[in-house]
Amino acid sequence: MYDIYELTPSMRVLLCMHNMSAVDANNAKKAEDLTGHCDMDYNDLEKALCELVDFGYIVKKDHIYYLSSLGISVVRSVFT
Description:
Blueprint: H1 9-19, E1 29-30, H2 31-38, H3 42-55, E2 58-61, E3 64-67, H4 69-79
């Protein structure tokens, strides 16, 4: 049976990064740091990160990632 409340990998990463306070360059995280916290396989995580960078939801700078203002807005929309 399909779980309608199951999160997509990209949404799981967004929520995880928000929970880890990766919301600016000073609090950015490496992909390796996100793997354990997001409970995802590293390859799946990298695919989700690439997708999120392409959509502008996260920023990649020097191999670290943080949420963009658009990504923060997406996460906030989940809670409102």
